[in-house]
Design a protein that fits this description.
By secondary structure, the protein is an alpha+beta fold. Helices cover about 25% and strands about 30% of the residues. β4 and β5 form a beta hairpin.
C-alpha cells in the first residue's frame, strides 16, 4: 500500500519559501516606516518654533538681548522669562523651571542678534550642520 505524504525535500522547500516571504515582508515594513518618519533636518519644526514665540497667547515683549539669551516680558502673565540658547533653545521661568522649545542645535554656532526694539534675528545651527535663520517680532512693551 502506497501512502501519499510530503518528502523531506518538499518540507525544506516549503520552509525556505516561507522564510523568504517573512524576510521580504520585514524589509518592506522597515522601508515604509523609514519613509513615513519625518527627518530631523526638516525646517517645519523651526517655523513652528518661531510662530510660537510670536503667538498672541504669550504676548512676549523684548526687554534685553544678548548673544545667547533674551529677556522677555510676558504681557499676559506679567512675568519675566529668559529665552536661552545652549544645546537647545529653551524658555526659563522665573521660578526656575524651563521648557525646551527647539533641540539638536550647536549652541556655540547659534546666536541672537537684536535688530530694533521689537525684532530679533535668530540663527541656529543644527547638530547635522543645517543652518536655520529667522526674525522674531515681539510685542511692543507698554
Amino acid at each position: 500500500m502506497k501512502r501519499s505524504a510530503f518528502t523531506l525535500v518538499e518540507c525544506i522547500g516549503a520552509l525556505l519559501v516561507t522564510s523568504l516571504v517573512v524576510v521580504l515582508t520585514g524589509y518592506a515594513l522597515t522601508a515604509v516606516r523609514t519613509t513615513s518618519r519625518p527627518p530631523l533636518d526638516r525646517a517645519t519644526d523651526w517655523i513652528i518654533c518661531l510662530q510660537e514665540l510670536e503667538s498672541p497667547d504669550h504676548r512676549f515683549a523684548l526687554k534685553r538681548a544678548e548673544r545667547y539669551q533674551l529677556e522677555l516680558y510676558d504681557l499676559n502673565q506679567r512675568r519675566i522669562y529668559e529665552l536661552c540658547l545652549r544645546d537647545r533653545l529653551y524658555l526659563r521661568a522665573p521660578n526656575g523651571g524651563y521648557m525646551p522649545i527647539f533641540s539638536n542645535i550647536r549652541g556655540e554656532q547659534s546666536a541672537f542678534k537684536r535688530l530694533d526694539s521689537q525684532r530679533v534675528h535668530v540663527t541656529v545651527v543644527r547638530t547635522n550642520g543645517q543652518k536655520l535663520e529667522g526674525v522674531v517680532c515681539f510685542e511692543k512693551d507698554r
